[in-house]
Amino acid sequence: MATAAFPPGGTYFDNVKRSFTDVPVNAAAGNAISTTEFLEASESLTGLFDVLGSAAFKPVKGDVLGNVKKIRERQLESPAESETLQDLVRNELKTKKHTATEGLVWLVRGLDFTAQALRKNLNAPSEELAASFREAYSNTLKPHHSFIIKPIFSAAMSATPYRKDFYTKLGDDQTKVNEELNVWLKALEAIVAILKEFLATKEAKW
């Protein structure tokens, strides 16, 4: 049996290295999002794929971590120009390169997929995870995936555990789990919305 992903009396979110609730967003500077904390929170999010427990989710997790790596490499290369995600994108595009920017586009799609799947499931107490994840996949990643990738991700959607098993792995107190998941999701959704809006602007295009 898998070990619990949470401390006694707590929830999965107590063990998260960095939550999206802890990612600084500077509203006065056009909702600038701090790069370091955002990448840490994105890495921490992949722990949820481990809780989902299926080997089928390895490509989803690998996709997120691969895109985090592209963004972090650019940040390490030019730290002074990459303190916020928006500055990182603007400054990379000035060099006529777009590896990290493209990584961010794909990372945001992956985060959007995760947020939509969990939000739909949280809001529909009788719906199984597979249905929520399939719908979220259709709305987010599927339109951008090739015919080779689609079956791999579709298999992951169908391999999700039963709803009750997943939520039990997040904590013993389901009311607390739902409350903390909702807080985490709201922060993630807000960041995804800011980044989607920014990435749709001319200055983020290559």
From TrEMBL:
Superkingdom of origin: Eukaryota
SUPFAM superfamilies in UniProt: Glycolipid transfer protein, GLTP (SSF110004)
Glycolipid transfer protein domain residues: 33-171
GO cellular component: cytosol; membrane
GO molecular function, a single term: ceramide 1-phosphate binding
UniProt entry keywords in alphabetical sequence: Transport
Protein name from the UniProt record: Glycolipid transfer protein domain-containing protein
Protein source organism: Acrodontium crateriforme
